[in-house]
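Sequence, please.
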């Protein structure tokens, strides 16, 4: 039975850290592998990301263009009319959320699939084909 205090790493699996700057005989003495002079030879070479030695960095040379509307983008939870087939009577964003079909975003109904029931569907937005299909099945599409 071996003791916990007798445990050792397997032979060859660990290696001592190479200690630089410990004299000429070590092979990495004097300049300690940093070469002679220059920014990276100093004790704290803090070179910022993207620094190109004083030359204008590429991220500042390239033109910036375009517009992004990401901060103002409206996202909708999308439901197809084929997914409404399981409901009866009135369908609202609250009933869709209770059924686990949508999250907290506004709801948009799309016209993929077929509807055989006359449902009253209330949503924030409808595609033209969805509204037409709901009314063709004898239902009503109401925008909230």
């Amino acid at each position: 039975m071996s003791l916990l205090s007798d445990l050792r790493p397997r032979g060859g699996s660990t290696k001592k850290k190479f200690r630089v700057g410990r004299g000429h005989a070590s092979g990495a003495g004097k300049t300690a592998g940093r070469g002679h002079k220059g920014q990276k030879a100093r004790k704290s070479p803090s070179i910022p990301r993207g620094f190109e030695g004083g030359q204008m960095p590429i991220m500042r040379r390239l033109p910036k263009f375009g517009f992004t509307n990401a901060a103002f983008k409206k996202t909708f939870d999308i439901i197809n009319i084929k997914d409404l087939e399981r409901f009866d009577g009135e369908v609202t964003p609250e009933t869709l959320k209770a059924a686990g079909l949508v999250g907290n975003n506004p709801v948009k109904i799309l016209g993929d699939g077929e509807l055989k029931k006359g449902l009253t569907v209330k949503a924030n937005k409808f595609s033209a084909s969805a509204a037409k299909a709901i009314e063709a099945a004898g239902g009503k599409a109401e925008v909230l």
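The helical segments are 58-61, 93-98, 128-136.
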